[in-house]
């Protein structure tokens, strides 16, 4: 059986990740592209031997299309993904799932109503180094997790975006909403939940627009750097840094400190996973390098999404998973804005501010 895929939005995430991964998947028969700028859709349709939908409604109502990637900008996810799900399509939505809890919950409810698959593109779960690290932690091969630190930073979305300029929508408060927190930070929050099999429940943070400027030369409307402290339900504590101003080299590393040693992930260019026990013995795993903006490799996301549809299985990153991570990111941003410690209440769907 083969599936026909549709893609909403024809920016860089489609050009470099979704489209080539659909094209390489043997179970995809064709890709149909839609963008508010028809020329962008035409370019990618020609590049990937696909076709163009003249409108969003044409894409969603096309009975031959089985699955849709929502690669629109952040503020449109709650519109496009809901329409696609209720239109009978399985949906892979780019992160963050939405900009508000209310909008995210609408997408999750649309999935429940439609009974279609909904997967969110938190791609860090799919790297072999992260999967192996989770396995080591689950098996308690180095004891219990105590603390952690993680970082995700690069030179900024304007270096990779389709316009290659500071006019990128990522710098707009209305469209990006959460700045580097929603672009990079939410990936690492999801990763920590995945690695630790735990949830972050308390946060504090600092954020700033330290270097990026918009088209007028003024500092951008959203944060380009954010540093936070995190505490999980299980009592683990750690730090996280997210940045659009790592100009020399991209950093996508994580260190987990356990009672029996240390797990280092993506700290070494040759060995993506290094394990050191408390007696100093070192094991180095020569796995694949992580995907970067400058080095595009198959993320595994499209293959996993297609597989979940064909096998009628729950996707590995559900809408509920993404909602949990969004609550944490909104809590982190609130903590930075209010100089407070914020309690993330997953059961009620709210974030509560605690005085420092």
Automatic annotation (TrEMBL):
Ranges where the Gfo/Idh/MocA-like oxidoreductase N-terminal domain occurs: 4-122
One function term, GO molecular function aspect: nucleotide binding
Record Pfam families: GFO_IDH_MocA, GFO_IDH_MocA_C3
GFO/IDH/MocA-like oxidoreductase domain span: 130-263
InterPro entries in alphabetical order: Gfo/Idh/MocA-like_OxRdtase_N, Gfo/Idh/MocA_Oxidoreductases, GFO_IDH_MocA-like_dom, NAD(P)-bd_dom_sf
Family matches, as PANTHER family: BILIVERDIN REDUCTASE A
Protein known as: Predicted dehydrogenase
Organism placement in taxonomy: Bacteria, Bacillati, Bacillota, Bacilli, Bacillales
